[in-house]
Amino acid sequence: MARRAVTVAACALVLAGGVGDVAPAHAESDVALNGVFTARSDGLWAKTNEIMVYQQDVVATWTITSSCTTFQDCTGTVVSDQGWTADLVYQSQRWKAVHTIENWQRCPDGSTARGEQSFTFWAARLDAADRHDRLTGWDQTIGPSGACGVNRSLNIRMPFELTRKP
């Protein structure tokens, strides 16, 4: 009988609007990602079409600005010192930025093909207070199928880390 009373009381509290002042688990400001970061793609662990093939490390400086309307709906911009800018989207606790690299893949006949580079990253530790200081994920670039007369797309994937600059 005591359990039923607690359940009825809880329902009454909700219907009366008594829990309306409770903050969500993640406030919008907790999710937004802003600042200057070092972006590093680790070529030692790179895979080309799922085969371990060493690639040179890539290190860049990113300036990130974002805002959120809810803890699940965030957008922003990444500006890289490598000369590109990309839209940034937050979905399913992951950030994603995508841009096109012209003349990325060199073909034997001297022609080139573009590549679509995507960075997907998330907080290295969700429970840490500094979850916006170090993020980890993947840097993946994929060429179009049929480039260079080959039906299989060139796909290079490297571990990625984003670290806030002091």
From TrEMBL:
Domain of life (superkingdom): Bacteria
Q: Which UniProt keywords apply?
A: Signal
Q: Where is the signal peptide?
A: 1-27
Tell me the protein's name: Secreted protein
